[in-house]
Amino acid sequence: MVSFEMNDRKKIGLGLTGFGIFFSVLGVIFFFDKGLLSMGNILFISGVSLTIGMKSTMQFFMKRSNFKGTISFGIGFFILIMGWPILGMIVEAYGFIVLFSGFWPTLSVFAQKIPVLGWVFQLPFIRSLFDRYRGKRMPV
């Protein structure tokens, strides 16, 4: 059974995930600075690992249906480290979308309930984008 209690490890993991997203956005703003993007990736992966646990993280990334996304994300990170941040981020973005495609319906429901911006996600065009993934596989 999944535990929804918020212990210190999960709080630190959520903080690291947030900082990872922050550094990644900052790296894109500063014209694809590879140092900030690399730091963002490392913090994001370590934050996810701490939040959901090491065993669940390994099961998620090593699942047969997630291999394409895992490999793309890893190759994109390697390309980023080698000095081609724009190409690396494109490959990583593809891997990220493939890995987390099962979460789009959940994200859609959450986004539609945001008080001020929810109406944007209820527009027919935006809703059809999210409905495309309804009924698809759900990762771990």
Question: Can you describe what's shown?
Answer:
This protein has helices spanning 8-29, 34-52, 54-62, 67-82, 85-99, 104-112, 118-121, 124-131. The chain has two domains: 8-99, no CATH class; 101-140, no CATH class. The chain is an all-alpha fold. The chain is 73% helix and 0% strand. The model has no long low-confidence stretch (mean pLDDT 85). It is a multi-pass membrane protein. One of its GO terms (biological process) is endoplasmic reticulum to Golgi vesicle-mediated transport. The chain crosses the membrane at residues 12-32, 38-54, 75-104, 110-130. InterPro entries: Got1 (IPR045176), Vesicle_transpt_Got1/SFT2 (IPR007305).
Question: What keywords describe this structure?
Answer:
mainly alpha; 2 domains; 73% helix; 0% strand; globular
